[in-house]
């Protein structure tokens, strides 16, 4: 049976050695883990084998030979194929084993893989990452995990080798949802969307603040926006005026027009500030623009 300890001493499988998977598997090897790798294109295993990894010829074999198996695959289709397809990891799973899918997939895919893994009596953790190739190389990823808590605790020492932080988000699907929401760059929309899909917006603010898309402004305004508080630092009326009238936006819009570049987001943002002003929020902080989006969501609900 899997034991929860502060150090992971079992054998680790790694399926999918692409841009992200290769440096992640390499970091596990460098940290002294006993790693078995598999990749569809076998040649990508070779550098890792030369550094001490073992090789198995199918996801099924990897899972059968390991205590915990990670998968880092392109998309939902490949994640399902590698887990549930012919000679897939599921066939090698059983009681006492764990499957950690770190690919970016949708909620339905994560639930499907979870069901197949659970049907074998094994444990499942979804753990998509926020990060990039460089952050994978540097062991600085952010893990957005969900589902089996005991597997989360068990693999935490491994996640700490691969990343700088990890979030446990509860039921299956929440990791995938958080990853997809984080990847939406529109800050204010992120807060509303995360709320609507049942995520804690304050955790979202924290996740974003630690990733590559973090912005000091978002970290500064996010926590109070979550509480619907807008202590005035820069009044909304000035922001809207600025969007409409000041040189920087006018010139920027002019420049965009000169090369026929559409700038719909700037235009849409300005409309939202106008709506917020019409709600009497002119003297609130400009982050109160989120109220315009809340009202719009109610309009369309
Ligand atoms: N790149 C980035 O900055 C980030 C990526 N991610 C996510 O990480 C995941 C991996 O991305 P990344 O490493 O960049 O992608 P890559 O394209 O570099 O690697 C994809 C991996 O999936 C394998 N694969 C694809 N299709 C199949 C299939 N049908 N059967 C078996 N194996 C398959 C590839 O195998 P093969 O070598 O044979 O092609 C390869 O190992 C994605 O979900 C991505 O969204 C998350 C954060 C950042
Ligand atoms: O998926 C990409 C990321 O930066 O996160």
Q: Which hetero compounds are present in the coordinates?
A: NADPH dihydro-nicotinamide-adenine-dinucleotide phosphate, the ligand O=CC(=O)O
**Strand/helix succession:** EHEHEHEHHEHEEHEHEHHHHHHHH
CATH homologous superfamily label of the largest domain: NAD(P)-binding Rossmann-like Domain
Number of domains: 2
Please tell me the overall pLDDT. 83
Could you say what the CATH architecture of the largest domain is?
A: 3-Layer(aba) Sandwich
The stretches of 5 or more residues where confidence is low (pLDDT under 50) are 1-5, 241-256
Helix fraction by DSSP (H/I, runs of at least 4):
40-55%
According to CATH, what is the class of the largest domain? Alpha Beta
User: Major beta sheet, specifics?
Assistant: 9 strands, mixed
Indicate the overall shape. Answer: elongated
Q: Number of helix segments?
A: 16
| Strand-residue proportion | 5-15%
Determine the CATH topology of the largest domain.
Rossmann fold
Rg, Cα atoms, Å: 23 Å
What is the CA-CA span between the terminal residues?
48 Å
Number of DSSP strand runs:
9
In terms of structural class, how would the helical and strand content be classed? Answer: alpha/beta
GO molecular function: glyoxylate reductase (NADPH) activity; NAD binding; NADP binding
Domain 3-hydroxyisobutyrate dehydrogenase-like NAD-binding: 173-292
Pfam families: NAD_binding_11, NAD_binding_2
Catalytic activity: glycolate + NADP(+) = glyoxylate + NADPH + H(+); 4-hydroxybutanoate + NADP(+) = succinate semialdehyde + NADPH + H(+)
Overall description:
This is 6-phosphogluconate dehydrogenase NADP-binding domain-containing protein. Belongs to the HIBADH-related family. NP60 subfamily. Keywords: NAD, NADP, Oxidoreductase, Stress response. It is a single chain. By secondary structure, the chain is of the alpha/beta class. It has helices at about 20-30, 45-50, 60-65, 75-85, 90, 105-120, 135, 150-160, 175-180, 185-195, 200-210, 215-225, 235-245, 245-260, 265-280, 290-300, and strands at about 10-15, 35-40, 55, 70, 100, 125, 130, 140-145, 165-170. It folds into 2 domains: about 10-180, Rossmann fold (3-Layer(aba) Sandwich), CATH 3.40.50.720; about 190-300, N-(1-d-carboxylethyl)-l-norvaline Dehydrogenase, domain 2, CATH 1.10.1040.10. It has 16 helices and 9 strands. Strands 1, 2, 3, 4, 5, 6, 7, 8 and 9 form a 9-stranded mixed beta sheet that branches. α1 links the parallel β1 (about 10-15) and β2. Bound molecules: NADPH dihydro-nicotinamide-adenine-dinucleotide phosphate and ligand LL5AMS7Z. NADPH dihydro-nicotinamide-adenine-dinucleotide phosphate binds next to α4. NADPH dihydro-nicotinamide-adenine-dinucleotide phosphate binds near residues 132 and 133.
């Amino acid at each position: 049976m899997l034991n929860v300890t502060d150090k992971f001493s079992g054998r680790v499988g790694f399926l999918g050695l692409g841009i992200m998977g290769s440096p992640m598997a390499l970091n596990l090897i460098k940290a002294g883990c006993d790693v078995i790798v598999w990749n569809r294109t076998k040649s990508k295993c070779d550098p890792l084998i030369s550094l001490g990894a073992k090789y198995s010829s199918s996801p099924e074999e990897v899972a059968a030979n390991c205590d915990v198996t990670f998968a880092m695959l392109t998309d939902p289709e490949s994640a399902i194929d590698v887990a549930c397809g012919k000679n897939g990891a599921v066939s090698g799973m059983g009681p006492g084993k764990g499957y950690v899918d770190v690919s970016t997939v949708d909620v339905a895919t994560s639930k499907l893989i979870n069901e197949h893994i659970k049907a074998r009596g094994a444990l499942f953790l979804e753990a998509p990452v926020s990060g990039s190739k460089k952050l994978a190389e540097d062991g600085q990823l952010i893990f957005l995990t969900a589902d089996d808590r005991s597997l989360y605790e068990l693999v935490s020492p491994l996640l700490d080798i691969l990343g700088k932080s990890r979030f446990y988000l509860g039921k299956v699907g929440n990791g995938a949802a958080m990853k997809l929401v984080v990847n939406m760059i529109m800050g204010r929309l992120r807060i509303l969307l995360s709320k609507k899909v049942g995520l804690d917006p304050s955790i979202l603010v924290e996740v974003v603040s630690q990733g590559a898309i973090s912005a000091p402004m978002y970290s500064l305004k996010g926590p109070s926006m979550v509480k619907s508080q807008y202590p005035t630092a820069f009044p909304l009326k000035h922001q809207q005026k600025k969007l409409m009238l000041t040189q920087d936006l006018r010139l920027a819009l002019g420049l965009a027009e000169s090369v026929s570049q559409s700038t719909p987001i700037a235009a849409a943002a300005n409309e939202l500030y106008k709506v917020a002003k019409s709600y009497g929020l002119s003297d609130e902080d400009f982050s109160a623009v989120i109220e315009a989006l809340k009202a719009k969501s109610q309009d369309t609900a």
